[in-house]
């Protein structure tokens, strides 16, 4: 008779004892199982023991254990070697949530903190202490705000001195980054204690890990600063040629740019562009003498000054006419700039263009002044709308995403990058206006084309402004039309009833192909990033489906290594134990993060697999590296669970396959022999009297 399904055989081993092979009843309380195992070895106080997986990351199954007590005793050892071994073992086990809670409940965090504060060994012991402290804090059991000021100052001292051990300072920088992001008060302490010059020193070393962590702390300090402090800090960094260093030694380094560094460069770009937001949100003040002088300077730079003998009325009339030629829609140009956004940022762009590209500015204005009124490209109106467009494309004023890596290399290759980009874009707009032979009524259509030109070129990530200028000017109006037509043809389908009927017949077969592809993709596996309590990407783990489609296999991997073979992965989740699939805000790890705007990207790519773990329900939580990977995994897991595959990617793949298969079927080539040689040309007819004139009436 076969044993019940909830009874499995497992081997239990203990140091200096004969291993046991027991029948584990999964319905029995774990405490009772532990007591039976301890009784077999004649051990008392079974509540002080725990079961631990022997393979992989050796995670604990129960909460109370002697291992935590033994390790904490080792941390207080008078022997340096004893502390080193205890810390090394703690680092390996601290990633387990249950074990970490047990260590923290026994004041283990304070003991590790004491080792860090004492700083008796600035080498491996300190590095292991910092790593163990970070691992324990990552679980979010203890708030970063509870750290003491002396402790933070001690960690700061490790950043500010020259250490021989290269592994200490990246860990110290990582700890300070977490403190800065989590506690405004302690973040101010870090800001006052860590000079910007010291971070610049760390950024200039050849150690990529140290560079990345220094950049992480720098962006954390910038995010925690007030707008005025942030501007002061960025101005100081630019004066120290920080931008040029990033462009030459990080972006164009021989070492590939890591995902974390790409994220920090994105944050740095977003924060720098964010300095434009106050100008973008501020309307022009008609009573400001400085702003009135800027408007007059725009007019005077475009037109020859008239004689000084003009009366006041004539001069006002002349000014109003010239401002209209500049493209202002109101006789008082201040009214055009009252709109926010772009507010004063549009005026800044126009003034910058007139001063730094005076010949191009004069040519733009005079060229359009000589056209018919309805064919003029209005400079001021175009500049105002173009500034709004650039702010939207570059997300000026939007909060930083916590996972995005979409920075533009040319931003770091150019001073005043936003204004320089405007100078290129306004000349592109004039060029596109002429190519479209546009009139005033076509203004919105021209802006749509310019938006597409700029967006397509920015997506190519040109490495310099000159390369951007070359690429965007090559994307003419005709080329945009061609690209649109090509994309439209790819998306077009026919709605004829016979074709719709054929497509419906083909769908089951093609959905089977898609299902097969999704399962194969799950078998190949994917590298996922863990999201820490700081809501940032830190560690990697790999998950794949077994070839027989019965088990999900997963485990942690080191960054930079190739995906491990499935048989080496320590953790397994039987597909039969999966209860459901959750996405977006229904996921446990998304609910813990809250519902702020900054979690938008995080939420879109989050999914969880809920499964039974004893009598409790647990979940395996994922953050997909891309939207496409998210759809592939959701489809594959849905297929495993017998649910329909309803992702957007499935819809696109099905549509593509249906279009291809329909076109092949319409060719009707199944029983048609295709000759290798073309057929011969027939001889001409004997006469050509086969044209009938319908206009001639027969008698």
TrEMBL record:
GO terms for molecular function: SH3 domain binding. SUPFAM superfamilies: ARM repeat, PH domain-like. One of its GO terms (biological process) is cell motility. InterPro entries: ARM-like (IPR011989), ARM-type_fold (IPR016024), ELMO_ARM (IPR024574), ELMO_dom (IPR006816), ELMO_domain-containing (IPR050868), PH-like_dom_sf (IPR011993), PH_domain (IPR001849). It comes from the Eukaryota. Involved in cytoskeletal rearrangements required for phagocytosis of apoptotic cells and cell motility. Acts in association with DOCK1 and CRK. Was initially proposed to be required in complex with DOCK1 to activate Rac Rho small GTPases. May enhance the guanine nucleotide exchange factor (GEF) activity of DOCK1. This is Engulfment and cell motility 3. It comes from Oryctolagus cuniculus (Rabbit).
């Amino acid at each position: 008779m076969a044993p019940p399904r909830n009874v499995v055989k497992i081997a239990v081993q203990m140091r200096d004892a004969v291993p046991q092979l027991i029948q584990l009843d999964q319905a029995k309380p774990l405490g009772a199982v532990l007591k039976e195992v301890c009784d077999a070895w004649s051990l008392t106080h079974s509540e002080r023991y725990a079961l631990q997986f022997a393979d992989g990351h050796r995670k604990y199954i129960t909460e109370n254990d002697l291992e935590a007590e033994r390790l904490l005793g080792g941390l207080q050892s008078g022997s340096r070697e004893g502390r080193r071994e205890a810390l090394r073992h703690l680092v390996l086990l601290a990633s387990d949530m249950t074990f970490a809670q047990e260590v923290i409940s026994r004041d283990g965090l304070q003991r590790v903190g004491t080792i860090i504060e004492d700083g008796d060994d600035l080498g491996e012991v300190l590095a292991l202490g910092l790593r163990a402290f970070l691992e324990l804090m990552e679980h979010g059991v203890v708030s970063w705000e509870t750290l003491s000021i002396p402790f933070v100052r001690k960690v700061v001292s490790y950043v500010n001195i020259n250490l021989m051990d290269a592994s200490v300072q990246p860990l110290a920088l990582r700890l300070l980054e977490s403190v800065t992001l989590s506690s405004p008060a302690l973040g101010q302490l870090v800001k006052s204690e860590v000079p910007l010059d010291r971070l610049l020193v760390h950024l200039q070393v050849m150690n990529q890990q140290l560079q990345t962590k220094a950049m992480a702390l720098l962006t954390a300090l910038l995010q925690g600063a007030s707008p005025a402090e942030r501007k002061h800090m960025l101005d100081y960094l630019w004066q120290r040629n920080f931008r040029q260093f990033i462009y030459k030694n990080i972006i164009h380094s021989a070492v590939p740019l890591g995902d974390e560094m790409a994220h920090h460069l994105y944050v740095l770009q977003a924060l720098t562009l964010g300095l434009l937001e106050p100008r973008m949100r501020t309307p022009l003040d008609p009573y400001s003498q400085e702003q009135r002088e800027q408007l007059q300077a725009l007019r005077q730079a475009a037109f020859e000054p008239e004689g000084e003998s003009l009366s006041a009325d004539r001069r006002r009339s002349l000014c109003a006419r010239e401002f209209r030629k500049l493209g202002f829609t109101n006789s008082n140009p201040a009214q055009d700039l009252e709109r926010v956004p772009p507010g004063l940022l549009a005026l800044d762009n126009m003034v910058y263009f007139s001063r730094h590209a005076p010949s191009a500015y004069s040519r733009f204005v005079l060229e359009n002044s000589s056209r018919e009124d309805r064919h003029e490209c209005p400079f001021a109106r175009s500049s105002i709308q173009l500034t709004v467009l650039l702010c939207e494309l570059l997300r000026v004023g939007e909060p930083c995403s916590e996972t995005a890596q979409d920075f533009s290399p040319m931003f770091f290759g150019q001073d005043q990058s936003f204004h320089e980009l405007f100078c290129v874009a306004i000349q592109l707009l004039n060029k596109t206006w002429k190519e479209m032979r546009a009139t005033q009524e076509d203004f919105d259509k021209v802006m749509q084309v310019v938006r597409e030109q700029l967006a397509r070129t920015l997506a190519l990530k040109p490495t310099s402004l000159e390369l951007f200028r070359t690429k965007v000017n090559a994307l003419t109006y005709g080329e945009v039309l061609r690209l649109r037509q090509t994309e439209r043809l790819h998306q077009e389908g026919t709605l004829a009833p016979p074709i719709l009927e054929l497509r419906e017949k083909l769908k089951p077969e093609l959905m089977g192909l898609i299902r097969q592809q999704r399962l194969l993709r799950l078998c190949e596996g994917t590298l996922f990033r863990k999201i820490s309590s700081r809501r940032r990407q830190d560690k990697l783990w790999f998950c794949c489906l077994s070839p027989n489609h019965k088990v999900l296999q997963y485990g942690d991997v080191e960054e930079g290594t190739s995906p491990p073979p499935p048989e080496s992965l320590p953790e397994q989740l039987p597909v039969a134990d999966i209860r459901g699939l959750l996405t977006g805000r229904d996921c446990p790890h998304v609910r813990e993060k809250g519902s702020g705007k900054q979690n938008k990207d995080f939420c879109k790519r989050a999914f969880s697999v809920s499964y039974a773990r004893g009598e409790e329900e647990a979940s395996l939580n994922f953050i997909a590296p891309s939207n496409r990977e998210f759809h592939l995994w959701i489809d594959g897991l849905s297929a495993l669970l017998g649910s329909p595959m309803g992702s957007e990617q499935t819809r696109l793949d099905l549509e593509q396959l249906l279009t291809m298969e329909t076109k092949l079927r319409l060719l009707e080539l199944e029983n048609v022999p295709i000759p290798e040689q073309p057929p011969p040309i027939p001889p001409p007819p004997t006469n050509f009297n086969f044209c009938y004139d319908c206009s001639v009436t027969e008698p």
